[in-house]
């Protein structure tokens, strides 16, 4: 048997331990390859989709590569430390340390090469399905499967270099010490499992402080908390697993009436040992799971914003002209021509906007005419309003301000014209985007408005297009949109005497961007969660031999099958669901702060999307638990 054959058989003999590690590596390679296939796809070159795809996929590949590097380093360190008994025997039989290092190098390369090969193969096999999903998201006419050397070269080059680095560095992780200690392996140093009460209390305080600030945050401090809470919660999480949980379990052990009942003695004592042994692993699983939850949650909230975009923008097209705009009539005629050409139904209403100073508040008031508002409102299917001479209504700048303004009755004089008006309540229908016409706007009756129009020139003219099939407008007014975009890029926005907004075009871009980012985020979250699960899987199966011996003793003592499953559940459930539960709580309070941000930006609710994310991850974790529990019970019952 050659040295390479010996290394290969070593890998095959430890395949049970390497299984989850191998699966996570394969999935990482597969996702990386799929991203690369889209990056180099010839159908998106020179299109707007390419910018979104290159940015999103590029960032995702960098994150994936960095995370995979961390995952491989941590996993290899744990694998090699768990095999110290095996290495001790090899050294005892005469193997030199140089040969041991070479053995580990070859083993790591074998696993790496297999992961790259299988991951790339599966990636290409699923490329067609991946392109079908992306094509639906970005609404491309076609995104066919293609074959090019570039995605293969990028994937193989990136991960091969990563595994070579790991192979060279891996021998550093081998535990050094006396030969007899190596042969005894993990049994060394497992007798003492201390904790610090002070750090345990500090961990609970830090987490409580983080949750409290996240729950009771406000618009004024939420941005600052974005930078303060993550390090605070991370430190609190580390102390929680290393000291707080052992401290809490110790309090249960002190209560003999509770501790000495049924199988709690065995479950809690074993739980304390495993908790202390795996505290860092639980901490890493919690942070990785939290990142996965938060990534998908934030991206899901963006898609929620896109889905509620129509409610925030009731009009199909909006053109606002300011004094000195010589292109106003040309632009309006062009927009109407393009709408008619594309057979898009619309209602066009023009709003000359007047300004006056209120004698009551000494602030400027924006004024629009009731007949124009009724004309636009009827196109939405709403009832027309009537106002007598001297009457007016508030136009709420946002939907949330309606109730407050509707309860107010105000008498004021428009100072420049001397017109006295009584503002009684607010207009109940949403016709304009938030703050579109102004933050302090009133709807004036026609008689008073006509008097005022003879005395005051309009400060702007608001051209509103109500378009029922508003998503068809994404190709309307592209030249005008280009002029606005170009002026922003050149920094000459102040010289442009008009504004133009096309919600249909904006929605198309946002929907494509956010949905594609969510899809990318879901794949990344899948990699994170699979890696987190592989940590737990590895810890279970590296201690399988000692667990088998322990349960064999219990069976000889007369333990029943039902009692056996109860003990296994009490040992496995904390390992699976405590890190996941902490991650879920972290994410829940983080989402409370995120809701405050969305309330300030757009007044939208993200509860439905975030509930779906958390429920979905919960279901996946439960399925994964039962799958691992089934295999674990099968191995425990199998004699050596």
UniProtKB/TrEMBL annotation:
Coiled-coil region list: none
Membrane topology: Multi-pass membrane protein
Segments passing through the bilayer: 20-40, 52-74, 103-126, 146-174, 201-229, 235-252, 281-302, 516-538, 577-598, 610-628
Residue span(s) of domain ABC3 transporter permease C-terminal: 62-170
Keyword Iron-sulfur part of the UniProt annotation: no
Domain of life the protein comes from: Bacteria
Keyword annotations from UniProtKB, A to Z: Cell membrane, Membrane, Transmembrane, Transmembrane helix, Transport
InterPro entries: ABC-4_Integral_Memb_Prot, ABC3_permease_C, ABC_permease_BceB-typ
Localization annotation: Cell membrane
Family label: Belongs to the ABC-4 integral membrane protein family.
Record protein name field: FtsX-like permease family protein
